[in-house]
């Protein structure tokens, strides 16, 4: 959770054992309603690309708004009306997921009154500042601000877009979104939410969505030219998975600009061949190394780092502005834990740099074709997956009540995932959110103190 007024340092939370100053009680008002596009939109099947197929997971985020001049009386009506209007441009979000004859996810758009984005009105029994510590993901408390479709057995029974607007007694409100990652990546999702806000304020869209995903079709015949180790299943010879049977602890670590500069300096001092180093490269290498050490991986244990690279500018030709879909591709680095832990930090940085450099048009086209021929999903065994939200403009969304006082994710999606979020003054700090078994968390925290 991005806390605009947060302090630097380590903040802690524990999923499943969260206590707040007063337990948040949320009452939903009436039944969920379906919001259809305000105008006629295309009918039929809407294609999802192979890059969309691998990440069909629900992403839950919240945005909290409060204006001194403007109460929340109109929040439900304003957001509902604007959603109906913006869905004219983003009509697939009003459809429903199904399986194509080729065995892939595809969106069915009937435009017959039976579909639409789901909208839920709710009220909280407290002020927004009485929720407790809402500066990081907490599915117990923050989960009450999003609406999960009851009794949904699988991803096909969950609409691509579900919104809940919760009014607080202080005059503020929270927008909680459940959106399917197969519909868009973080960049496209933020463009949609910001477009929704522009519509609510009576403005035309700053960025119109480009809806044609056939530009990322696989080649005929498919041509797999790379190993694509992101899909490799690694044997857990260290028994790290057994550690996860312990009580999980979740932490949020804030790296301020001084910490980040120190990390980069350390990497540059260590390396004999390292000529330059970005913040992402240094931080990713550090957390990969520290986590491997904390999990006490055996020296010959293979460990994999996965992270997404925005391919929009790397495709040839580049993806059009406003591309509505997933323009990201997973890249990877694999080495042994011994190589990672026993070498200097610069070794890990070089692995990250090689992974970034690997992402070219040829690599991404090969990844698209790899899925076409295998239908494989990336493996998370002995893997760290870093998700970077630090460049996403969560803090700029404005529905007419100004920018959110806080915004961000409700929970981490998997135990193997670490999340980077921008934070603090001028968004120069980075919050690192992760979960580890209790014994491993102590080691991880100790390593942070050495920076």
From TrEMBL:
<dbReference type="GO" id="GO:0016747">
    <property type="term" value="F:acyltransferase activity, transferring groups other than amino-acyl groups"/>
</dbReference>
<keyword id="KW-0808">Transferase</keyword>
<protein>
    <submittedName>
        <fullName>Omega-hydroxypalmitate O-feruloyl transferase</fullName>
    </submittedName>
</protein>
<dbReference type="Pfam" id="PF02458">
    <property type="entry name" value="Transferase"/>
</dbReference>
<dbReference type="GO" id="GO:0009813">
    <property type="term" value="P:flavonoid biosynthetic process"/>
</dbReference>
<feature type="compositionally biased region" description="Polar residues">
    <location>
        <begin position="1"/>
        <end position="23"/>
    </location>
</feature>
<feature type="region of interest" description="Disordered">
    <location>
        <begin position="1"/>
        <end position="28"/>
    </location>
</feature>
<dbReference type="GO" id="GO:0047672">
    <property type="term" value="F:anthranilate N-benzoyltransferase activity"/>
</dbReference>
<comment type="similarity">
    <text>Belongs to the plant acyltransferase family.</text>
</comment>
<dbReference type="InterPro" id="IPR050317">
    <property type="entry name" value="Plant_Fungal_Acyltransferase"/>
</dbReference>
<dbReference type="InterPro" id="IPR023213">
    <property type="entry name" value="CAT-like_dom_sf"/>
</dbReference>
């Amino acid at each position: 959770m991005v806390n605009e007024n947060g302090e630097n340092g380590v903040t802690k939370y524990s999923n499943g054992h969260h206590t707040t100053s007063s337990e948040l009680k949320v009452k939903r008002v009436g039944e969920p309603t379906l919001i259809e596009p305000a105008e006629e939109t295309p009918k039929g099947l809407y294609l999802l690309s192979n890059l969309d197929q691998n990440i069909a997971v629900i992403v839950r985020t919240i945005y909290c708004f409060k204006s001194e001049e403007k109460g929340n009386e109109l929040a439900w009506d304003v957001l509902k009306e604007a959603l109906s209007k913006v869905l004219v441009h983003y009509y697939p979000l009003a459809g429903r997921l199904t399986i194509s004859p080729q065995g892939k996810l595809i969106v069915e758009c009937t435009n017959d009154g039976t579909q639409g984005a789901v909208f839920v009105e709710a009220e909280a029994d407290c002020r927004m500042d009485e929720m407790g510590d809402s500066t990081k993901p907490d599915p117990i408390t923050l989960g009450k601000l999003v609406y999960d479709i009851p009794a949904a057995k699988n991803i096909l029974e969950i609409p691509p877009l579900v919104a809940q607007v919760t009014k607080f007694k202080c005059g503020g409100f929270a927008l909680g979104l459940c959106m399917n990652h197969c519909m868009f990546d973080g960049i496209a999702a933020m463009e949609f939410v910001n477009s929704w806000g522009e519509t609510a304020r009576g403005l035309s869209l700053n960025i119109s969505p480009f809806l044609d995903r056939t530009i990322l079709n696989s080649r005929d015949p498919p041509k797999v030219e790379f190993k694509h180790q992101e899909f490799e299943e690694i044997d857990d010879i260290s028994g790290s998975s057994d550690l996860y049977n312990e009580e999980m602890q979740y932490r949020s670590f804030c790296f301020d600009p001084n910490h980040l500069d120190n990390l980069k300096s350390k990497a540059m001092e260590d390396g004999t061949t390292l000529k330059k180093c970005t913040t992402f490269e240094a931080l990713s290498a550090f957390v990969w190394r520290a986590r491997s050490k904390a999990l006490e991986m055996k020296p010959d244990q293979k460990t994999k780092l996965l992270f997404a690279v925005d391919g929009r500018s790397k495709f040839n030709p580049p993806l059009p502005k406003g591309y509505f879909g997933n323009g990201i591709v997973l890249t990877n680095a694999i080495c042994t834990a011994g190589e990672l832990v026993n070498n200097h930090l610069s070794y890990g940085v070089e692995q990250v740099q090689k992974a970034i450099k690997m992402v070219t048009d040829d690599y991404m086209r090969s990844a698209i074709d790899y899925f076409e021929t295998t239908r494989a999903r990336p493996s998370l065994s002995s893997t760290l997956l870093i998700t970077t939200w630090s460049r996403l403009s969560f803090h700029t969304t404005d529905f007419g009540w100004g920018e959110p006082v806080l915004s961000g994710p409700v929970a981490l999606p998997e135990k193997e995932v670490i999340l980077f979020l921008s934070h603090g003054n001028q968004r120069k700090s980075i919050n690192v959110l992760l979960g580890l078994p209790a014994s491993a968390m102590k080691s991880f925290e100790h390593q942070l103190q050495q920076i």
